[in-house]
Amino acid sequence: MRLPAVEVKELYFRYDKEYVLEKITATIWDKEYIAIIGPNGGGKSTFVRLLLGLLQPTKGKISVYGRPPLEARRLVGYLPQNVNFNLDIPLLAREVILQGRLESGKYRFGSEDMKLLYQIAKELNIENLLDRKISDLSGGERQRVLLARALITKPKLLILDEPTASVDIASQKRIYQILKTLSMTKIVISHDINILLEGVDRVFYLNRKLFIHENIQLDIQNKEGHFCEMELFEELRRRCDG
Ligand SMILES: Nc1ncnc2c1ncn2[C@@H]1O[C@H](COP(=O)(O)OP(=O)(O)O)[C@@H](O)[C@H]1O
Ligand SMILES: [Mg+2]
User: Using CA atoms, how far apart are residues 141 and 192, in angstroms rounded to an integer?
Assistant: First the structure.
C-alpha cells in the first residue's frame, strides 16, 4: 500500500482579503517526485510554506507523514526561494551546510555530523567548495551547497523553491541530474521546462487553484517533441480553468 507523504484537504489560504489558495485537495505519495509550476503570484511558495508549518491554513487541513506540519519539520529538508547571503558574514560552505544539523541547544558538531557532511559533499560533487566562502561561489555552486544543507538533515521530504532560478543552464542541468538520483519524496517548484523531462512523476499546476497533471511525459510526447513553455502553460491553464 502506498504511504501518503503529504495530505492536503480543502485547503484555503489568504494573507489579506483575497484567497491566494482556494479549495486545494491533494495527496503526495512517499517517494514521489512532484514539480509545481504556474505563473508568478500563483501561490506556489505560499503552498510550500504551508506544508512547512511556516503559515497556518485559513481553512482546511494539512498533514505531513501523518502529523501536523510543525511536528513534521524534522522530516523535511527545505531550500527557500532567493536565499540571500549577507556578504559581510564570512561563512564557509561547510559551515552553511552544517547549519542543517543545528538543533536548539546544540552548539558543537560531532563525528556523525562530519561523516554526513563529507558523504553529502561527495554525492553532490562539492568537496572542493567546502572551504570556500559562500559569498565567493557562483550561483550554481551556491545552490548545490544549499541543497547539501537541506540534505544533511536526512529528510524524508525535500522541498525546493525555484532552485535553479538564478543559475546558468549547465548548473541547472546538473542540479536536476542530482535530484533524479535522490530517492526521498521531492517537491520542486520550477519555471524550468527541463524539469518536466527529468523523471518527475506528476506536475501540479498552481494558480490559486490546483490542477494535477498525472502524466506530463505523455502529453509532451503527444506534441511530437515540439512544444514551448508558453504553449504548455497555456494548455495547463486552459484545463485548470475549464
Ligand atoms: N507575506 C505576504 N503578505 C501578503 N501577500 C503575500 C505575501 N506573500 C505573498 N503574497 C501574495 O500571495 C500571492 C502568492 O504569492 P506566492 O506564493 O509567492 O506566489 P508564487 O510563489 O507562485 O510566485 C501573490 O499575490 C503575492 O503577492
Ligand atoms: Mg515563489
Answer: 18
Whose alpha carbon is nearest atom 6 of ligand 1? 15
Using CB distances shorter than 6 Å, the residues near ligand 1 are: 15, 20, 38, 40-46
Domain boundaries, the chain: 4-86+156-241
Of 11, 46, 187, best ligand 1 pocket probe by most atoms within 8 Å of the beta carbon: 46
Spatial contact of 203 and 33, defined as CB atoms under 8 Å apart:
no
Sign of the Cα pseudo-torsion (218, 199, 140, 29, in order): positive
Question: Measured between alpha carbons, how far is 61 from 37 in angstroms, rounded to an integer?
Answer: 22
**What's the confidence (pLDDT) of residue 142?**
92
pTM higher than 0.85: yes
What is the dotted CATH code of the domain comprising 4-86+156-241? Answer: 3.40.50.300
